[in-house]
Design brief:
Largest sheet of chain A: none
Strand order of the largest sheet of chain B: 1-2
Order of helices and strands of chain B: HHEEHHHHHHHHHHHHHHHHHHH
Radius of gyration of chain A: 18 Å
Helix content of chain A: over 70%
Number of strands of chain A: 0
Number of strands of chain B: 2
Distance between the termini of chain B: 30 Å
Number of helices of chain A: 5
Radius of gyration of chain B: 21 Å
Shape of chain A: elongated
Largest interface: A-B, 23 and 19 residues
Order of helices and strands of chain A: HHHHH
Number of domains of chain A: 1
Oligomer: heterodimer
Largest sheet of chain B: 2 strands, antiparallel
Shape of chain B: globular
Structural class of chain B: mainly alpha
Structural class of chain A: mainly alpha
Strand content of chain A: under 5%
Helix content of chain B: over 70%
Chain lengths: 143, 494
């Protein structure tokens, strides 16, 4: 679809806003609807949109397969790592109270990192699924 | 700092952390090292927990320091501590075995994925065993199941993909039934903590939704446990999976599901509600006997040794649930000790068959003519394991069957005692099929050229086999633990 000037221009304008919106959903998750899962899906959707307009190889240059696969694992590690941090600071597993001298901000801090982990894993998994399906259908084609 | 009080959660968290770590480093060798270390840690930690449980009775661990029933509780008594030891024992023997086996059976690029999934499966199975929360249990069930679907599909054999897909469909149906059951319980009690559900069920124990929950959970868990006639996924999955996966799953996955059934029956619904008010005992009894006879007979007609062992597994699940169906201390002890003994024996057998396939390139029985001359150790091992399946005195299988027969006589049913013995005779028939081909047929050109499998495969299998003989000669350890588990379960809702 690279031949369509309008699509290309619109995509270039929209993609940054999609990513920004993902971050908004991510960080506003504490106060309103949202959170890591939804934000991760929106972020992945931005990349998928990019891939639809500019082709799969272009998207793979922006977010390589290696990064996607590492992201899947890294997000889980971040999530589980928050739990281990609770252990190291003298609490139980996934104990957020001990993450900060003030228990309430400890809870905030804990959920912040957990949601960050969810964001990383969900967006990576979404992209991985897309890459696998898109890559399978037309090998070597730029989509 | 981290000390022994955190072992219940570390039991799950360590393998869970190792899985993404292996994916990040992307190395087959280092993945193997990490997975093996995680398995050994799992075993050590499970033994520490078992000792602690025998000292204090029940360990409760509040995830996130939210006290139960608000937060997720990990609750370990004699029953799940025993399950953890079985898991740890099998995992720490299968992991070293996987080194050579995986290199032969799985494409090189996928090695690190295999070890990551191995850790995930272990974390999931361990999680099912330790958790005291109904929904958490479902989540771990899904983690372990999803990991095992992929582990099965990793084999080079394309039929593995179909087998994994069948398992996926049926496993998902089972999981759906379980989550519906849990949902109904939540609807009636407003809580997901198993102990809390049990205490709140009180007067509504006979209400329709609770009975429906019992039915949904029974069917769902039976599917996961491959209880006859819901076993259709099992033979294909075990026959086509990589050898290390067959050994791990055969020894642990269905056993953990049986544990879940026990937990729901005895600790949540309560013995009277399940066995006196509802005819679950009779239903289980009928299905168990059908499993013992039909699946054993089916095993005797298989042409593939792995598939034969898989059908034998279905039959052995029947023995375990037979013990459960009596709902007496002797019956439960027999069922639980058979859970352990059969796990160890069948794990060893699948590993030995994998070792044969390593050299022969197939597990078809007719290609094993005269194999005992070229692989005397391996074949002798299979015979010893086979004797364990039959239940010959001196093997672990005898101890558990002895208790099952005792329980049947205690329940006043000589017929059932007779059926247990008779079905063991069918086991003689299917074990003999291997013996006849491997020992009494002249070696073919193919088998004459073969050498004994490498020690990297034989030693781990030998360890598990030795354990199965040891627990047959000196059963006080396992029997004591199983009796403790049966008592903890029969004590009813905690």
């Amino acid at each position: 679809m690279r031949g369509y000037l309008v699509l290309r221009v619109v995509a270039k304008i929209i993609v940054p806003f999609m990513l920004l919106f993902a971050l908004y959903v991510q960080f506003h998750g504490d106060f309103g609807p949202g959170g890591g899962f939804q934000a991760g899906v929106i972020a992945a959707a931005a990349i998928i949109f990019y891939a639809l307009i500019f082709g799969l190889p272009a998207a793979r240059r922006v977010v390589p397969d290696r990064v996607v696969e590492s992201g899947i694992a890294a997000g889980v590690l971040v999530y589980a790592g928050v739990g281990v941090a609770g252990l190291l600071l003298g609490g139980n597993y996934l104990d957020y109270f001990v993450l900060d001298p003030d228990p309430v901000s400890g809870q905030h801090r804990g959920i912040f990192w957990v949601e960050a982990g969810v964001f990383i894993t969900v967006s990576s998994v979404m992209l991985k699924i897309f890459y696998m399906f898109a890559g399978r259908q037309r090998k070597g084609d730029d989509g | 700092m981290i000390d022994g009080t955190h072992l219940p959660v570390l039991q799950v968290v360590v393998p869970l952390l190792c899985a993404p770590l292996i994916v990040l480093v992307r190395g087959g060798r280092i993945g193997w090292a990490i997975a093996t270390a995680a398995s050994v840690f799992f075993l050590a930690s499970s033994l520490a927990i078992l000792l602690e449980v025998q000292r204090v009775g029940v360990i409760s661990y509040a995830i996130g320091s939210w006290p139960p029933p608000w937060g997720i509780e990990y609750r370990i008594d004699a029953a799940n501590a025993f399950m953890l030891v079985l898991l740890g024992l099998v995992a720490s023997v299968v992991a070293p075995y996987a080194w050579a086996s995986v290199r032969a059976e799985i494409p090189r690029d996928n090695h690190y994925l295999f070890y990551a999934l191995y850790c995930l499966a272990l974390a999931g199975l361990g999680g099912i065993a330790v958790t005291g929360d109904a929904f958490n249990l479902f989540v771990f069930l899904e983690i372990s199941s999803l990991a095992s679907y992929v582990l099965i599909a990793l084999d080079r054999d394309r039929r593995a993909l179909l087998a994994a897909y069948q398992y996926l469909i049926l496993g998902t149906i089972g999981a759906t039934f379980i989550v519906i059951g849990v949902g109904l319980l939540y609807l009636m009690t407003g809580t997901l903590n198993l102990a809390d559900i049990a205490s709140r069920l009180g007067d509504v124990r006979q209400a329709r939704p609770v009975l429906a929950a019992l039915a949904f959970l029974t069917v769902g868990i039976s599917l996961k446990a491959a209880l006859f006639p819901l076993h259709m996924w099992l033979p294909g999955a075990y026959a086509h999976a990589p050898s290390a996966v067959s050994a791990l799953l055969a020894a642990t996955a269905t056993k953990v599901s049986v544990y879940v059934l026990l937990r729901f029956y005895f600790s949540v619904f309560g013995t009277t509600a399940v066995f006196a008010a509802m005819p679950m005992g009779d239903v289980l009894l009928a299905l168990s006997i059908a499993a013992m006879i039909v699946a054993s007979a089916a095993a005797a007609f298989q042409t593939d040794l792995k598939r034969l062992l898989a059908y034998s597994s279905v039959a052995q699940i029947g023995y375990i649930t037979l013990g459960v169906s009596f709902a007496t201390a002797t019956g439960l002890t027999g069922g639980i000790v058979h859970l352990f003994n059969h796990g160890v024996t069948k794990g060893a057998l699948f590993m030995l068959v994998g070792a044969i396939a390593f050299r022969l390139g197939s597990s078809r029985i007719d290609r094993m003519a005269g194999l005992a001359r070229s692989m005397p150790l391996t074949c002798a091992g299979i015979v010893v394991g086979g004797l364990g399946l039959i239940g010959v005195p001196g093997t672990a299988g005898f101890v558990s069957k002895w208790y099952l027969v005792l329980a049947a006589i205690e329940a006043g049913s000589w017929v059932i005692a007779f059926v247990v013995v008779a079905s063991s005779l069918i086991a003689v028939a299917y074990v003999w099929r291997f013996v006849e081909v491997a020992y009494f047929r002249p070696p073919s050109e193919e088998t004459a050229r073969l050498k004994e499998p490498p020690a990297a495969l034989l030693v781990p299998a030998g360890v598990l086999l030795a354990a199965s003989v040891y627990f047959g000669v000196e059963p006080s350890l396992t029997l004591g633990a199983a009796y403790g588990a049966a008592e903890a379960l029969l004590a009813g809702p905690r």
